[in-house]
Amino acid sequence: MDFRLSPEDEAWRQEVRSWLRQNLPPDWEDRIPEEQGWEFARDFARKLAQKGWVVPHWPKEYGGLGLDLWKQLIYREEMAYHRAPLGYVAMGTDWAGPTIIVYGTEEQKREHLPRIARAEVMWCQGFSEPNAGSDLANLQTRAVRDGDEYVVNGQKIWTSGAHRADWMILLARTDPEAPKHKGISYFLLDMKSPGITIRPLIDMMGNHAFNQVFFENVRVPAKNLLGEENRGWYMATTTLNFERSSIGGVAASLALLEELVRFVQDAPPELAYLCRQPRVRNRLADMAVEVQVGRMLSYNVVSIQAQGRVPTYEASIAKLYNTELGLRLARTGISILGLYGQLKPRSKWVRLRGRFERQYLWMTGMVVGGGTSEIQRNLIAIRGLGLPRG
Ligand SMILES: Cc1cc2nc3c(=O)[nH]c(=O)nc-3n(C[C@H](O)[C@H](O)[C@H](O)COP(=O)(O)OP(=O)(O)OC[C@H]3O[C@@H](n4cnc5c(N)ncnc54)[C@H](O)[C@@H]3O)c2cc1C
Fold it and tell me: What is the CATH number of domain 7-122?
């Protein structure tokens, strides 16, 4: 595979980069208090929408620019490298939207895709349940057909952003008699529907990102069923493959590594010895290699998508490697910074804005979300290597 980019692609990279530098000044994270970060992310997404840049690779009829996947990759790399806050749109652009493009009716596409592209709506993902995480097919939330509607009862957990979301992609059991993978359906649920209760779960960073979501006789119009009834499992695997692809995200590790290298080069006097330590030099060199490997794994995923195929175990390889890389990078930074590495961003002694402490806590979640590393290894063994199921 030749991953060299064309001059046109490089020009696109420059265009995105210079726009980001204007719209995300280097100190933007310090200027925005945490509690206003949410509004900033929403306004930023809407600015992107004005340029057609929320989903630049989607077809024009759905609000995209019709750019090829390589340009999308470049765009994603630049966004990740500059730490652009895309949380507001991500579940719509990366999970719900692509699945609707593959399985949605024309009416569903026209209703949902342009609104995602205009950054008007936020989506969340109602898949996991207390007894259905790694074993997602064990989910027990029920949806029972009643005329032109389904009536949903049950519970979801770890639902990121549910407290702000307008819509949810929801998995529910429609045939309890069928084998567990064959009785699940996939719904598009309006989060304003009566009967939904959302309770916060505070994560170990102290943030309210997760929720528990309870459904009590929630009525979902039958037109909001995605694809065929009882075929939801197969569509969910498509969503998870899109989620695991997370193309371009490794550029965030590159930015962090570059910051760490600059810190070591220009270290304050009490830490100046770091630069000369073989342990530190070797570790940073290893990380530089690993970041490039992670990047190539993402490029491989894009090359498969560009051929019109859906990456399966290739997406798992990229997800496994790149999230564990993020965690290794966090450990590297914390060990180089010593006791300073554990300080929170607001400490007066903090170094590098406390990024490595944040990265450590964040990446610990990322190796679990979207399917744990063990589950990715199982998928690679079964789908990639053809080994029997354990
Ligand atoms: C940051 C974050 C965001 C999330 N956001 C969402 C969201 O928006 N929507 C949503 O639906 N869910 C979300 N989740 C939930 C996530 O998908 C689950 O946490 C994940 O799938 C693991 O499920 P579990 O927590 O039930 O752990 P379990 O499945 O109980 O796993 C516990 C441990 O056992 C291991 N294990 C389980 N089965 C096997 C096996 N067969 N082989 C080897 N090891 C195994 C796991 O690897 C893990 O170490 C999020 C999670 C995180 C951390």
Answer: 1.10.540.10
Is 230:174 a contact under the CB 8 Å cutoff?
Answer: yes
pLDDT in tens, 129-151: 999 999 999 999 999 999 999 99
Q: Which fold has domain 246-384?
A: Butyryl-CoA Dehydrogenase, subunit A; domain 3 (1.20.140)
Catalytic residue among 243, 290, 314, 357: 243
Calpha distance 171→186 (Å, rounded): 5
Pick the CATH number of 124-229 from 3.30.1360.200, 3.90.700.10, 3.40.640.10, 2.40.110.10: 2.40.110.10
**Residue 1 has what pLDDT?**
64
CA distance 253 to 270: 26
Residue with CA closest to ligand 1 atom 26: 133
Q: Dump pLDDT digits (tens) for 276-296.
A: 889 999 999 999 999 999 999
User: What is the rounded (10 degree) CA torsion for 228, 244, 361, 377?
Assistant: 100
Regarding the beta carbon of 365 and ligand 1, being less than 6 Å apart is answered yes
Helix (H, G, I), strand (E, B) or coil at 154: strand
